[in-house]
Amino acid sequence: MKTTRREFVKKSTATLVGMGIAGIGAKKVSANDKILIGLIGCRNMGFANLKWFLKNQEVECAALCDVDSEILTERSQEVAELSGKKPVLYKDFRKLLEDKDIDAVIVGTPDHWHCIPTVYACQVGKDVYVEKPMANTIQECDIMQKAAQKYGRIVQVGQQQRSAVHWADAIKFVKSGELGKIRRINVWANFNYAAGRKAVPDEPPPAHVDFDMWLGPAPKRTFNPARFHGYWRMFWDYGGGLLTDWGVHLIDMALWAMDVDGPPKSVSSAGGQFDCADNAIETAETQHVLYQFENFIMVWEHNGGIQTGPNRRNYGLAFVGTNGTLWADRDNWEVIPEEERMAAVEPHKTDGMSNEHHVKNFIHCLKTREKPNCDVNIGRNAAYYAHLGNIAYRTGQKLVWNNEKKYFDNPEAIEFIKTNYRAPWKLPEI
Ligand SMILES: NC(=O)c1ccc[n+]([C@@H]2O[C@H](COP(=O)([O-])OP(=O)(O)OC[C@H]3O[C@@H](n4cnc5c(N)ncnc54)[C@H](O)[C@@H]3O)[C@@H](O)[C@H]2O)c1
């Protein structure tokens, strides 16, 4: 039976009231309109994004939301200085979503808090710029993809390399075939922060933080500064270590170049915590992941606690072909030819504007309703690969794709694909 628009609005409104949001407020942005933005999660990347948004004269920051009122006050003053207007401040993102004038939200919260605000925003008719990785579990990514599609929203995932000029021409070069047969792609990231910070005892949460709301759908846990702002990345309930933090950006480049938008044949992983005994960390400090495809392999490697890497790049990709190897990172790409098999290639440098381009692309898509450069399908695919690597590591199993079942032949792995939310939060049903 077909649902009429009136029935749809009635049903959606009932759902929204159920999740603590009053009203539905889709607004259409036309070419000359002001674009009103709300930011959810203001400390680091969320605010960096907002500043790139504000470089576009049609953008205004209408509201900020954070569970840390010190951050909220500080960021609100900065917005007032930048734009001359004070935003409305919220501690609960559901209240921000009730503002019918807001066109789009930036979700700059830790990874475990990407799914719910994104889905709720789609349900009230707002477009979303959500940070990467798209979500903290594969099941959440699936729900977000469905929500964007069902509610017809523009959702850009914050993998800004998708809008970078020098990455696009590196990918074009790989696809040109000049490197010959590509049999292997090495992808790696080595960063000090990913070994966690020095462990300290638990303590009461600061008075200016609503810690229960920070935990949200994640399990109840005592407060510890080494698991909080910024450092949550190294704890499974909130993040996935370097593999989800940097892996989605870099693995996405490999998938793009090789035209991969489905699962690998298998995934296996090894690693551990070998040099961080005094630190607070649950994720792998050192990790290796092997992705098997029909005609090539992709190898991910990361090391927390160090910052050097192959070819003097602490992170990057190497596309290994018969005629030469293309090395790429955010600064540049270059080709090292196999002797006499190909002509020298001029190195290409970045214009240093990937974030600006990515934000501009989102704003353009708000007006035109075109597909953004990193839509939910691309964001979901990259997040899948990162999470699969972590699932292989955590189960100690080689994950093998079963094409008939369209799933992995590993019951234990499937448990990690699912999401268990802490009440009263419920996994949205789309
Ligand atoms: N695209 C990139 O290059 C890039 C770079 C850095 C971070 N990121 C991503 O950005 C996201 C945020 O990372 P970060 O480094 O800014 O983390 P952070 O810990 O520095 O900041 C997160 C902010 O979200 C707030 N917050 C937490 N729960 C909230 C809630 N329920 N409602 C409102 N606010 C809430 C926190 O109080 C904090 O202010 C992550 O997903 C991360 O992976 C992307």
Describe the structure.
The protein has 430 residues and is α/β, with parallel strands linked by helices. It has two domains: 5-161 and 369-375, Rossmann fold; 164-349 and 380-417, 2-Layer Sandwich (Dihydrodipicolinate Reductase, domain 2). The protein is 33% helix and 21% strand. It has 13 helices and 18 strands. The strands form three sheets. The protein has a ten-stranded mixed sheet with strand order 16-15-14-13-7-12-11-9-17-18. It has a six-stranded parallel sheet with strand order 3-2-1-4-5-6, with helices on both faces. Helix 2 links the parallel strand 1 and strand 2 (59-65). Helix 12 packs across helix 13 (411-417). It is globular and about 60 Å long. The two termini are 17 Å apart. The model is unreliable at 1-14 (pLDDT under 50). The chain binds nicotinamide-adenine-dinucleotide. The site of nicotinamide-adenine-dinucleotide has 28 residues, from helix 2 and helix 8.
